[in-house]
Amino acid sequence: MKIVSAEFIKSCVSPEQFPQGELDEIAFAGRSNVGKSSLINSLLNRRDLAKVSRTPGKTRAVNVFRISTSDPNLDQFYLVDLPGYGFAKVSRSLRLQWGPLMDGYLVDRESLRGVVLLVDCRVVTEQDRQTIAWLRSIRRTTLVVATKVDKLKPSERVRTLKHTHHDLGLAQGETLIPYSSVTGDGREWVWGALRDLIGGPHPESS
């Protein structure tokens, strides 16, 4: 599938700044330093559309990108990059600001079709489990992606991903997509899932 355009629209620090209009949205979430910006750039075949940083907590707002593709089932949509959770190097006041902003977006946003939740394939945290449980509780469709699989030896991959699936509390048959921003492994799988999310029926409002 061809990415026709990928454009940064705005950074939002309050609900009033969220985009207005008819486009569907897919949000990307995950703990700090999980590789979210790298995955977004890899997914869109862009080098630095989403800014990559070695400093956890670098994404300090809800960043919105407008994506156009050659796929008529996707056409145009907003990709929304959420601040990482588990951030350690930001002020307490900023954390308190982010909490209500993200809660309000994920609970109330009618144009949000689903959440892509990124987890490190090697390390599952309690925050990862809590985030999955919370997204389920608010009935948000969630696609779980295990990042950094290129860090695993081929002999480790199946065993590690099986453990990750179990540690996250995913049910048998629930999908965990392995992804590498270095090699592109999992890219078409993620795009197929996004196509299903955007092309499917709209979820009922929470």
Short note summarizing the structure:
It contains 5 helices and 7 strands. With 206 residues, it is α/β, with parallel strands linked by helices.
Distance between the termini: 32 Å
Low-confidence stretches: 52-58
Helix-strand string: EEHEEHEHEHEH
The CATH class label is: Alpha Beta
Q: Globular, elongated, flat, extended or rod-shaped: what is the shape?
A: globular
Instruction: Determine the structural class based on helices, strands and strand pairing.
Output: alpha/beta
Q: Tell me the fraction of residues in β-strands, as a range.
A: 15-25%
Kindly state the mean pLDDT as a whole number?
Answer: 85
Strand order of the largest sheet: 1-3-4-2-5-6-7
Q: For the report, how would you describe the main beta sheet?
A: 7 strands, mixed
Within CATH, the superfamily carries the name P-loop containing nucleotide triphosphate hydrolases
**Number of helical segments with 4 or more residues:** 5
State the CATH architecture. Answer: 3-Layer(aba) Sandwich
Any idea how many domains? Answer: 1
Task: Provide an overview of this structure.
Strands 1-3-4-2-5-6-7 form a seven-stranded mixed sheet, with helices on both faces. The N and C termini lie far apart (32 Å). Residues 52-58 have low confidence and may be disordered. The chain is built from five helices and seven strands. β6, α4 (154-167) and β7 form a beta-alpha-beta unit. It is globular, with a radius of gyration of 16 Å. The protein has helices at 36-44, 92-108, 126-137, 154-167, 187-199, and strands spanning 3-12, 25-30, 62-69, 76-81, 112-120, 142-147, 176-178. It has one domain: P-loop containing nucleotide triphosphate hydrolases (Rossmann fold). 33% of the residues are buried. It is of the alpha/beta class.
